[in-house]
Every structure is written in C-alpha cells, then in structure tokens.
Amino acid sequence: MKTEELWTRFSTDLLSFIQKRVRSEFDAEDILQDVFRKIHLSVHTLSDESKIQSWMYQITRNAITDYYRTSARRNGAETHFDDEIELIEETEEASNLNNLVSGWLSCIVQDLDEKYREAILLTELGVLNQKQLAERLGISVSGAKSRVQRGREKIKEILLACCHIERDRLGNVIDYQRKSVSCNCNLC
C-alpha cells in the first residue's frame, strides 16, 4: 500500500486522534507528519495489510508518548508517575475504535424502515425506555421491545454486511476492515 493512499484514507482520523491527546494544534500536526514519515519508512515491513489501521494507530500512540517524553526532557521536568498512568489509560482507551464505529450508527439508523428507526432513535439513542416507547406509539410493551430488538438486529446486519469488525476479549472494537468499496460506514 502506498503512503499517499494511507494519507488520504487515514490522516484526518489520525489527526483528530492526536489532537484529543495533545494541547497544541501545531504539535499535533507535527506529530502526524512524524507518524507518516515512520509509516512511509516501514510500511514495507507490514506482513498483513488487513492490520494496517491498528498498526498505524500503534505508531501514532508511540509518537504521542515520545512527544510527552521529549517535552518533559526539554523542560527539565521529570514526568510524574500519575501523569504517565493517565496517558497510558487514555491511549489504551483510545486504542479501541468503539467511538469511531458508534459514530457510524446515526448513518446506519437512517437506512432502517421508519418503525425501526423511530424505535431506535427514541430508546437507544434517545431518552425513552421501552415502556415509554410503547405508550408514545400506542402499542404493547412487547411490541415496543420487538421493534427495538429488530432494529438492533437490522443495524448489526447492515454493519456486518459492510465491515468486518474485530473485537478484543472485552468486546472493544480494535480493528475493522471494509468488505467492499461501496461501504459507507466510515464516511459518516
């Protein structure tokens, strides 16, 4: 895979990832450039291209860690253990792609039939419980539960038809791969 293709596909997401962890916008852009320099120099060593995204995020996390270590040395300050633990926890939390994949849900929900879309929007993405949904729609509670459950199933079908999702033992998304070029999930 060429570096230019990787830049086009991932630079925006990686920059956003970095900006959430670095206060300075300029530093974030510098880190992104450094990340892509490292990617360019070592992309040929990647044996499994299906793991490219997780590999790139690992390079990015390492670059952010290096940034903080360099900053601490430059300022003559030692990093505090609590600060390091917090940085590690933030990068571990961010290493999964839960937020990215959950961001696709609003687009996927729009593709559902009206009755399922409404049920999901009001309960899963809204503030109503299933009993309140039943009252609002004038249907039985079991009917409301069925709509929500079917809506969930349809969302899962749409998502899994479009993308292969890899999760860790805790259920966190750690990688995804589009199954076809017509996949619109990561465009949401």
From TrEMBL:
<dbReference type="Pfam" id="PF04542">
    <property type="entry name" value="Sigma70_r2"/>
</dbReference>
<comment type="similarity">
    <text>Belongs to the sigma-70 factor family. ECF subfamily.</text>
</comment>
<keyword id="KW-0805">Transcription regulation</keyword>
<dbReference type="Pfam" id="PF08281">
    <property type="entry name" value="Sigma70_r4_2"/>
</dbReference>
<dbReference type="InterPro" id="IPR014284">
    <property type="entry name" value="RNA_pol_sigma-70_dom"/>
</dbReference>
<dbReference type="InterPro" id="IPR013324">
    <property type="entry name" value="RNA_pol_sigma_r3/r4-like"/>
</dbReference>
<dbReference type="InterPro" id="IPR036388">
    <property type="entry name" value="WH-like_DNA-bd_sf"/>
</dbReference>
<dbReference type="InterPro" id="IPR014304">
    <property type="entry name" value="RNA_pol_sigma-Z"/>
</dbReference>
<dbReference type="InterPro" id="IPR039425">
    <property type="entry name" value="RNA_pol_sigma-70-like"/>
</dbReference>
<keyword id="KW-0731">Sigma factor</keyword>
<dbReference type="InterPro" id="IPR013249">
    <property type="entry name" value="RNA_pol_sigma70_r4_t2"/>
</dbReference>
<feature type="domain" description="RNA polymerase sigma-70 region 2">
    <location>
        <begin position="7"/>
        <end position="73"/>
    </location>
</feature>
<dbReference type="InterPro" id="IPR007627">
    <property type="entry name" value="RNA_pol_sigma70_r2"/>
</dbReference>
<protein>
    <recommendedName>
        <fullName>RNA polymerase sigma factor SigZ</fullName>
    </recommendedName>
</protein>
<dbReference type="InterPro" id="IPR013325">
    <property type="entry name" value="RNA_pol_sigma_r2"/>
</dbReference>
<keyword id="KW-0804">Transcription</keyword>
<feature type="domain" description="RNA polymerase sigma factor 70 region 4 type 2">
    <location>
        <begin position="104"/>
        <end position="155"/>
    </location>
</feature>
